[in-house]
Amino acid sequence: MRIGLITPDAGHPLLAAAVAALAPGGHTVQVLDPAAGAAGAAGAAADVYLLKARTPSALALARELERGGAPVLNSAAATEACQDRTGMAALALRAGLPFAPTRTFAAAARLETAAGLPWPMVVKSRHSHKHDLVARLDGPARLPELLDDWSEEPVVVQAFAPNDGWDHKLWVIGDRVFAGLRRSELASGAKEPARSLERLPDGWAGLALRVGEVFALDVYGVDVIDTGGGAPLIVDVNAFPGIRGQAGAPEALAALALRRAAP
């Protein structure tokens, strides 16, 4: 089989290890530079493509390949859907997933005059991007500080849900669920190293798989917090995250690519 990687970093640990897992079977790997945009699809002839990048040029390339009938994991549409936190929340809530109710503002500056803000609250960039805004505000006093840097940023607002300060990182590859704990960037106190998570609360693995069905994702991450007694609240969904340090993840990705390859 021929596997195409749409990524600017083919040396990423997950991808590199997946390529190594494919090598004994005689499968070949082609790296497509997303910076080339749709022009990068010229001459491409892989049986399946893994869309690791999320830039506009990478999405354009993925769409071009999809129009030619090639399977792309994740699809361009599913990847793009995870970049808009307003649409993400709406889709999740319509599907009955335990997702934080979300309010959208065209610019953070509008928070100054907004009524009914749910203090304490979490403010995030509406569109997920590198170094985007994610901040907890316990009251109006911190709002001017935030607006110094982010006044024109489109944002979403969610009520802060009390939790234990740890993000449960659930990563899914096909039907395999991997998990870990990372200290929430919203938690107070000193940073702590990530922890392994050998057992998920009951029902959480099924919840992670349900997210994939709702968002039409094949490789994705779900950030969940425990709001007490094992009650989960989804706070983010990511298309094709890094999934570092998870034993078996590269092999699961290689197997998924082969299963989804076009005949």
From TrEMBL:
This is Ribosomal protein S6--L-glutamate ligase. InterPro entries: ATP-grasp_RimK-type. It holds the Pfam family RimK. GO terms for molecular function: ligase activity, forming carbon-nitrogen bonds. Keywords: Ligase, Ribonucleoprotein, Ribosomal protein. PANTHER family: BETA-CITRYLGLUTAMATE SYNTHASE B-RELATED (PTHR21621:SF0), RIBOSOMAL PROTEIN S6 MODIFICATION PROTEIN (PTHR21621). It comes from the Bacteria. GO terms for cellular component: cytoplasm; ribosome. The lineage of its organism: Bacteria, Bacillati, Actinomycetota, Actinomycetes, Kitasatosporales.
